[in-house]
């Protein structure tokens, strides 16, 4: 976060420009499909006593965290390949000979 401090705020004044910030989304956030956090503000009254508040998402009198929903991107894919095992080496398939299968599974989405 950058900005501040706010040098003075008269009664009724609202400051929306001094502070700003960003957060870099982590894999755990993508897996949770949400980022939740809060800010705390501290000011000094005329007697230099601290006055403080914990942020709310929509009200000056509540203290709910700010939730940011992240769009889900979950995808998976599989490729299956096969090899004929010509176990007697004669170039033909006989009863009892086998086919081996291999599987390549890929997480092609953004969530774990
Ligand atoms: Ca609220
Ligand atoms: Ca609050
Ligand atoms: Ca054979």
TrEMBL record:
This is DUF7507 domain-containing protein. Residues 7-54 form the DUF7507 domain. Keywords: Plasmid. Residues 41-72 are annotated as: Disordered. InterPro entries: DUF7507. Pfam families: DUF7507. Residues 45-60 have a biased composition (Low complexity).
């Amino acid at each position: 976060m950058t900005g501040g401090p706010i040098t003075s705020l008269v009664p009724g004044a609202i400051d929306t420009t001094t502070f700003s910030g960003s957060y870099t989304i982590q894999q755990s956030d993508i897996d949770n499909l949400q980022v939740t956090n809060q800010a705390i503000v501290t000011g000094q009254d005329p007697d230099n006593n601290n006055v403080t508040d914990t942020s709310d998402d929509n009200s000056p009198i509540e203290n709910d965290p700010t939730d940011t929903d992240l769009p889900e991107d979950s995808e998976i894919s599989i490729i299956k390949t096969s090899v004929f095992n010509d176990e007697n080496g004669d170039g033909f398939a006989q009863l009892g000979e086998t086919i081996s299968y291999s599987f390549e599974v890929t997480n092609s989405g953004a969530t774990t």
